[in-house]
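Posting here for the record, re: alpha-L-arabinofuranose.
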Amino acid sequence: MKGKICLLAVIALCCALLCGCRQEPRAEEPALVMGFSQLGSESSFRIGNTRDIEAQAQAYGVSLMMDDAKQKQENQIDAIRRFIAYRVDVIAFSPIVEEGWDNVLLEAKQAGIPVILVDRTIQTEISDLYVSQIGADFYQEGVLAAQYLLRKADALGKDRLRIVEITGTESSTPMRQRHEGFWDTLAGDPRMELLESVNGDFLRSRGAECMRYLLERYGDQIDVVFSHNDEMTMGALPEIEQAGYRPGQDMILISIDGGQEAIDILKAGRINCIVECTPMLGGLLMETALDIKAGKPVEGIIHPVERVFCDEDDLSALPPRGY
Ligand code: AHR
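Prediction output follows.
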């Protein structure tokens, strides 16, 4: 009888231990599940941004469902609907354009899934469609680009500078805000004249096409090229050289992003100024998502710290850019 009781006690203890083990979170259980819709892979910024988000998800123990929308808003909307159906903990995405998100984000809200905007923002009349936006202050980037140009005009003693602008994707946040920040800052300076603003969609191939068109139309008149990203600047550079001009000397080139390839060209004197737009947003994204899941308050807008690289600086000790 005594032996039987002992055996039952051992069995009961084993059951309790097993049940207890099942209740403990397993070591490999993710901190949260995140669905991320990336808008595409149009630039070194974008590729660096995707890589950083993937690396930081791993570092923070976040299970990441990454979707590449291949430059199409409808693909982003489909991806967000899939994330809702999967019932992820957090949805994050980089909106390719600012308008047209209300319906799908209302669906996420009704499903109780918090949304974080990464890099770009959206336009909406509805409040609370997203919890936080993590990305650059694009208006300030335009301001910094213009401030460089004002300094350069002073240094060169120029009384007239004719500017061509190659903008990013139509109706996207960086395109709109960089344009506004740049021209608001130059407004009222009689030396600055816009020849034409053309759309290069943030693509290298389009940057080349735009530059070819601008050179054919304005040729010698062009004093300044303000390009909204490195990719388009690098598309424009060979066109400028083939037309017989020395970029960085005959024309002032101002770019945005600060990827390694463009920084190397700046160091060689063929670009004059690059305003940084950092793609390294993954750490901030993971921390914000984890705070939201833990019920902690988060900032509505989070801007990373960014700087300017230009021909006024000694860049010899600049560490590798990582994108
Ligand atoms: O939204 C940020 C912009 O998008 C980057 O400046 C550009 O390179 C990218 O495609």
